[in-house]
Amino acid sequence: MNARIRLVAVSTALLAPWCHAQGPDLELLPEDTTFVVHAEVQQVAQLLDLERILSRVRGGKSDLPRGRVRLEADVLQMIEDQWGVRPLRELRSVTLFGDKDFDEPTVMIRVSDEFDRLLDGMRDAGALRPELHAGLEFERLDGASLASALGVDDGGDHDGGGYVFVQPVNEGLAILVGERPRDLVHAARVLHGDALSVRHAHRPALEGRPGGQSIVFAELASSLEDLTRRTPASKIAGKVRRVVLDVTANGDSLGVVLAAETDSAEDARDVAAVIDGLRGLVSLAATEEHVPPFVAEALRSARADAAGTRVTVRFRFSIDELRTIVHEHADEAFR
Q1: Residue 266: left if φ>0, alpha if ψ -120 to 50, beta else—which one?
Q2: What angle, rounded to 10 degrees, do the helices at 143-150 and 71-83 form?
Q3: What separation in angstroms does the CA of 232 have from each of 228, 236, 266, 332?
Q4: CB atoms < 10 A from the CB of 300, how many?
Q5: CA distances from 113 to 78, 83, 169, 198 (A)
Q6: Which 3-state string (H, E, C) describes 130-161?
Q7: pLDDT attached to residue 238
Q8: Residues in contact with 141: Cβ distance below 8 Å, sequence separation at least 6, in sequence order
């Protein structure tokens, strides 16, 4: 696992919002952002009771994901023991974003003020070391020093570390994570107040308007060709100019809304017809392949509606049934 992926994975697990789900904060995203994926991690963790799964990981005997997953779980406990911060209680959200020319998305983690105690502890241990880049202070993650502070023997597997940029925002901290400072400079300037954000841009590409109690939100404010750097093989896919995914928690169910913007009402009707056809095929296959009943039912009940140039697909999942499936798989993996 390379440094960026590991740093994101550990940071995501480390970092508890005491606020309602609200989607990505447009005040913190660069004005040229065209792609964003945002998750309210604490809400998802609470809905699925992921603390129980983590406890299973710590005590699990499965050989399949044991090495890395067990290590990360143990490290979380060591961090809590070492610096008195309960990692899973301090995370608010994780956001991945980029402009239309991005190679890899920028990662931003939102945490509570309490997480600053952990950062200070890592600095004192030499695990975070300041470096100046483009007039901004970044910090380099030193994996060897972190392992030493926690008393962990990682066999010298540090993968070169990574970089973070930390900025106080809205009763908490925003932390940019990446392999190289140059990949984070533009986003860091926005956080620092030296560059325009989506909220203050004259004509931003990104809309960023999730529904109430949104826990997962994604938007692609450009064509699929811009995202993939390839001409879509399907003519229908080539007609899509914007895609929005919004997952909201409502009582005992998750509502999923998938919307696509096209150039014309005719294109929207064509896209809706294709989606309905695919939905029928997938729901039939789901029944035959013994997919969980609540998933099959969601697929069967979904409908694609065209209104003007926009196509919208809506369906719902039972939270209880989804939680049961997640825990059954976890129990199987770590028993």
Answers
A1: alpha
A2: 70
A3: 8, 9, 19, 39
A4: 16
A5: 20, 14, 9, 24
A6: EEEECCEEEEEECHHHHHHHHCCCCCCCCCCC
A7: 74
A8: 3, 7, 127, 128, 161, 162, 163, 164
C-alpha span between 54 and 13 (Å, rounded): 10
Neighbours of 81 (CB within 10 A): 10
Q: How many CB atoms lie within 10 A of CB 15?
A: 27
CA 14 – CA 33 distance, rounded (Å): 26
Query: What b/e readout covers 84-116, taking b as 16+ CB neighbours within 10 angstroms?
Result: ebebbbbbbbbbbbbbbebeebbbbbbbbeebb
Nearest to 107 by CA among 49, 51, 48, 191: 191
Distant-in-sequence, close-in-space partners of 247: CB < 8 Å, separation ≥ 6: 214, 215, 216, 217, 254, 255, 256, 257
pLDDT in tens, 287-321: 555 666 777 777 777 888 899 999 998 888 888 88
What is the layout of strands, in order, in the sheet containing 240-250? 128-133, 136-141, 162-169, 172-178, 106-112, 91-98, 35-39, 214-220, 240-250, 253-262, 310-318, 303-307
C-alpha dist (Å) from residue 12 to 76, 99, 154, 226: 11, 22, 20, 28
Number of neighbours of residue 286 by Cβ within 10 angstroms: 18
Helices (H), the chain: 3-14, 41-48, 50-59, 71-83, 115-124, 143-150, 185-192, 224-228, 265-288, 293-301, 319-334
Q: What's the pLDDT at 23?
A: 80
- Given the structure tokens 């109690």, which residue do they identify? 213
SS3 label, residue 19: coil
- The amino acid occupying position 312 is T
pLDDT tens-digit map of 25-72: 999 999 999 999 999 988 888 888 877 776 665 555 444 444 444 556
